[in-house]
Amino acid sequence: MNNSPIGVFDSGLGGLTVVKEIKKVLPDEKIIYLGDTARVPYGTRSSSTVIKFSLENTKFLVTKKVKCIVIACNTSSAWATDAIKNTTDIPILNVIDPAVDSAIEGNIRKIGIIATAGTVRSGVYQKKLKAKNSNIDVYAKACPLFVPLIEEGETKGKIIELVAKKYLSELKSKDIDALILGCTHYPIIDKVIGDEMGRNVRLINPAVGLAQELSKILDKSDLYAEKRFDDDEYYLTDDPTGFINVAEAYLEEDIDNLITKISLT
Ligand code: DGL
C-alpha cells in the first residue's frame, strides 16, 4: 500500500483526457496534475525545449512526493521519456507504449496516427509500431490546428468538422484499420474524428491503455492507495480562466477550488 499521489503532467489542459481514464480505473488514487499552460503548445517546439520543460515538470511533481509519474503529453512522451527516467527512480509511464500495444491488437494491416508536428517528427510511434509488427503499414499525419481550436472550445460544429475533413482525407484514402489519437486533446473531439473516418476505423485513445498499464504497475509494485484520503490537486503555470471551463465540462466535476497557479522557473 502507498497513499502518496500519482503525478500527471501535460503541456496544458489536454492531459485531462488521461486524468479522466485514470479516475475511471483507479477512483481511490489521488492525482496531482500539472498543466504547463503558460508554455503550451509543446507540439510546435524543438526536442531540446520539450525535454527541458518536461524535466522541469517532473522536478515539480517529485517535490510533491508522488509515487509515480504519468507523462500525459504525447509530445513529451515522444521526446523526453528517457531523459525523465534518468532523473528519478519512481515508475515513469508514457502514453505511447500502451497506445502501440492497443493498436496492434487483432488482424491489423494499416494504422494511422494523428498527432502534433513534434510527435510525428520524432518518429517514435512509427518506430515502435514497426518494431512490434514489421508487416503493418503506418501513416502519420500532423494536425496542428486541432489543439488551438479545442482550447477555444470549438469541439463540435462546422469549423472543427471542416478542419477534420482537411486533415483526415489522406488517411481515409489509405483505408486504415485503426487510428491512434496521438495527442492528449484529440479524444475530446473523438466523435468528429470518428464520423469523418467512418465506423470501420477503430479509434485508439492512448489514455485507455495507459490507465490499465498504470493499474498493473501499482499492483505489481504494491503501490495501490488504501482508500482516497484527499481531493486531487491541479497546478497550472498560467491563469486558470480558460482551463476551468473546458476542464469542468470534460471531467464533469467541480474543480475550481482545487486549482493553484505556480511558477516553474
Ligand atoms: N499535449 C500535447 C500532446 O499530447 C498537445 C498540445 C501541445 O502541443 O502542447 O502532444
From TrEMBL:
Free-text function comment from the UniProt entry: Provides the (R)-glutamate required for cell wall biosynthesis.
Q: Which reaction does it catalyse?
A: L-glutamate = D-glutamate
Q: Where does substrate bind?
A: 10-11, 42-43, 74-75, 184-185
Ordered alphabetically, the record's keywords are:
Cell shape, Cell wall biogenesis/degradation, Isomerase, Peptidoglycan synthesis
Where in the sequence is the active site?
73 (proton donor/acceptor), 183 (proton donor/acceptor)
**One Pfam family from the record:** Asp_Glu_race
- Please report the name of this protein according to its UniProt entry: Glutamate racemase
Family label: Belongs to the aspartate/glutamate racemases family.
Pathway(s) the chain acts in: Cell wall biogenesis; peptidoglycan biosynthesis
ATP-binding listed as a keyword:
no
What GO terms in the biological process aspect are recorded for it?
cell wall organization; peptidoglycan biosynthetic process; regulation of cell shape
Q: Name one GO molecular function term.
A: glutamate racemase activity
- State the gene name recorded for this protein: murI
> Known EC number(s)?
5.1.1.3
